[in-house]
Specification:
Blueprint lengths: L5 H11 L4 E3 L3 H9 L3 H4 L3 H13 L3 E5 L5 E5 L1 H12 L14 E6 L6 H13 L3 E4 L2 E4 L4 H10 L6 E6 L5 H7 L4
Antiparallel strand pairs: 1-3, 2-3, 4-6, 4-7, 5-6
Helix pairs in contact: 1-4, 1-5
Length: 183
């Protein structure tokens, strides 16, 4: 499947968030549906929206279910959820608090050689999120990031290979403080 356009990506993320997109021939129903979501969604061109949903259906990422009132419900399937999570993961970042709690978050992973692609992808993604490599399979960050790390390891289905540690000191702490601009 070729890359999805921005409207299709937004639809996937919307459906991932649990929003049921009711489509009908009635502009009133359509307007009521779109009114209940954020401003960005209201700005989606209706024609682009229908085209994106058709493309998602043809790609077997969503399926339709007809309601008794004649509206059509668009439902995200398993593959659609996986791809939506991928798009959502590209935007994930670790928030910087106003004050550092003086704890280090350490992520350790031991992924078998037979899964080298997973290991390299996970390492690259964690570094993109701002973690610094202490060793090839050990990365560190000064701020709370457990939820973000959990999201990424669930996305890559690497839970059994990854451990998360909170530490109060690391022997090269001065170097890390400099890297994270904590001095």
């Amino acid at each position: 499947m070729k890359g999805l356009g921005p409207t299709a990506q937004k639809v996937l993320l919307l459906l991932l968030g649990g929003f049921a997109l009711g489509l009908s021939g009635s502009p009133l129903r359509y307007r009521r549906t779109l009114k209940s979501i954020s401003k960005e969604w209201r700005n989606i061109n209706r024609r682009n929206l229908y085209h994106a949903i058709d493309r998602l259906y043809e790609s077997k990422l969503v399926h339709y279910a007809e309601n008794k009132d004649g509206t059509i419900l668009v439902v995200l399937n398993r593959d659609g959820r996986r791809i939506a999570l991928k798009y959502q993961s590209e935007d994930i970042s670790i928030p910087k608090p106003s004050r550092w709690d003086r704890r280090w978050r350490v992520v350790i992973f031991d992924i078998p050689e037979t899964m080298k692609n997973l290991r390299d992808t996970l390492r690259r993604r964690l570094k993109q999120m701002g973690l610094i490599e202490l060793q090839k399979s050990v990365l560190v960050h000064p701020y709370e990031c457990r939820n973000e790390i959990d999201f990424v390891i669930e996305l890559y289905q690497a839970r059994k290979y990854v451990r998360f540690i909170e530490a109060i000191s690391i022997d090269n702490e001065l170097h890390l403080k400099h890297k994270f601009q904590l001095l």
